[in-house]
Amino acid sequence: MILGNLIKEEREKREMTQEKLANTLNVNRQAVSKWETGTAYPDIDRLIQISELFNVSLDSLIKNDDGLKQKIIIDKSHQHPRTGAWEFMRSTGWMMVIAVVWIIGRVISTIWGN
Fold this sequence. Notes:
Elements: H1 2-13, H2 18-25, H3 29-37, H4 44-54, H5 58-63, H6 66-72, H7 84-111
Helix pairs in contact: 1-3, 2-3
GO molecular function: DNA binding
Pfam families: HTH_3
Keywords: DNA-binding, Membrane, Transmembrane, Transmembrane helix
């Protein structure tokens, strides 16, 4: 909950209410409250805005909060897996087109008796 404490501390230093901060970040007041209490985290766009608004590096916002670091780690199981056949077609598609054109050319050449 380090991030929440930092947001609250920086907000209060600037004599901002949760409502004022929420308006600045284009979120509702409840979102700011959840960030400050550690029940939710801002998305990456909001983290960047917070970093710029409070003149605090993203590194210092993220590094000290283990919960946020865990949330940022990409869970491979939630990514859309690429199918082997589709990936193969995508990566070798241009070679297949060249091969097909070459084969058609050879067939036509043979038929017309070059």
